[in-house]
Amino acid sequence: MAAARPLNRIPALDGLALGRLIDPATQAAINKINHTANGNSAKWRFQPGTYTIKQVVEHLAPLLNSLITQLGQDPPGAVPSRKILIDGLRSCLATTGRESTLPIGDAVNVAGESARKVMANQAQRIGSLLVRCAQNAPPPDVTGPQLTVRSPCEGHVWTREVAGLLIGPRSNGNLMQMYNEWLHQIVLLRDGLLPFENFDEVQLTIKQDGTRPVGDIRSKFLMQIMTAQVKRTTVIDVAKGLTASSLPSGGYGFQSGSGIVMPLSLFTGSSSILLKYVPATVEDSKNQELLFDYENKDYFSVPRHEIGAPIEVTSSASSTSPKNSTPAVSNLMSSSFAVEKPTETDPSSQIRHIKLHGNFKEGVEFSVDVGQITRGLRYAYRTASSDNDNQSAEPSSFGIHKASDVLSLPDLVTSTSHSDGVRLHVIQAGSAVERMALLGKLYPENVVLLSGEKQSPISALGVGKGFGPQFVIIGGEVVA
């Protein structure tokens, strides 16, 4: 009987396990698939299989190598053809310049953490790695086949040096198409990896047409990046392009044949738009590709429940008001993730819901949709200011609540009652799991996360919307 695979524990969530890690030896065996490009065939194609980013570039190298071989020997004193062509790739992958295929480099120096800025940084990091991989790929083999490829023009702008080489007397139409295909495959590889924070670790599922399957969603994605209107659904769909292309659109995460992909925010507590790849599976089934979808597609239509009376009411002017430096003691006895099939779905459905379950010492149980937690992380306001920053704020009444009381309530929790004069509802989380669960339980409007050791709820005054109640979560900070 085979030993059970190690649990995939998330350190930022108190070591909570989500699925089991893929055995490195098993993954190595998968990657041992024959990555030889074509044998002696003259027509280039991509060998389907599981690849790392480096292996994809190596597998594309025969296109460049055959091109260089067919160009013939470089004239004495001339810049080597290989250098000219790889420099052309570098220019196409750059985020500035005439040849840039993603000209958003200006966003890097803009204040804040906009999606456009995040993607600009990603493009620069991935582009640099791809150029290094191309430089380190196997050199031309003069005994290798003279490849041919049909590659429609993709509109990439060549450097003047590349144009001079490939439109000159040493070249021909086939060589121009070979360079176009090599260039376009690597540009698509970069764009398909943009959603991944740990892009260099992702195991890619590549089919016979290489990275081209990401082409259609890429156009939509780049348009959103250029107009600073990046949607998370599009980010997820782009991530599926080179890992789990059979899955439908949507969701907040997924399982491919070689790992799971989840929002980076679950691992860091941030509102990041990026995703994280983990070599693990949450379910071993015949259908390896699974979509992690929201339990409620439209959270606005979910019933809302009143938060109820606080266990204590205090003033912001009081010396006894709660602070983040005096964390609540957690009464959480156990917690776990559960992967569930939606009710009344086809048995062969690829859709799954992931729930965060927990039990408190006082007998309270809770179940929160992980998809709703990701929404809570996305929409929560954050403040890192000290409790001295808002000394001029008017005193306000705080209603202090226990995390277990809030998590025991049904549906989403909010407050529409102002009869007690309480506008700030302070909830003390004793652990990172409680903090995450609260983000999935509270209606995601005017929820404020405090961070830092010297904060009191007064730090939240003036943060968020100026109307309605505020919910302030203290404690349980995620340590990435």
Q: Give the helix tally.
A: 12
How many E strands?
A: 20
Strand content: 15-25%
**What are the segments in which pLDDT stays under 50 over at least 5 consecutive residues?**
32-40, 391-395
| Computed Rg | 27 Å
Mean pLDDT, all residues: 85
How far apart the termini lie comes to 36 Å
The biggest sheet amounts to: 7 strands, mixed
Structural class: alpha/beta
Helical content, roughly? 25-40%
Task: Name the assembly state.
Answer: single chain
Using the alpha-carbon principal axes, give the shape: elongated
Strand-helix topology:
Elements: E1 7-10, E2 16-21, H1 24-31, E3 49-51, H2 53-71, H3 81-93, H4 115-136, H5 160-166, H6 173-193, E4 204-206, H7 215-226, H8 232-241, E5 253-256, E6 259-263, H9 265-268, E7 275-278, E8 280-281, E9 290-292, E10 304-306, E11 312-315, E12 332-340, E13 351-360, E14 365-369, H10 370-379, E15 381-383, E16 397-402, H11 403-407, E17 412-414, E18 424-428, H12 432-441, E19 447-450, E20 470-474
Parallel strand pairs: 9-13, 10-17, 15-19, 16-18, 18-20, 19-20
Antiparallel strand pairs: 1-2, 2-8, 3-4, 5-6, 5-9, 6-7, 11-16, 12-13, 13-14
Question: What can you tell me about this protein's structure?
Answer:
29% of the residues lie in helices and 19% in strands. With 480 residues, the chain is of the alpha/beta class. The strands form five sheets. Strands 5, 6, 7, 9, 12, 13 and 14 form a seven-stranded mixed β-sheet that branches. Helix 4 crosses helix 6 (173-193). The longest helix has 22 residues, at 115-136. The model is unreliable at 32-40 and 391-395 (pLDDT under 50).
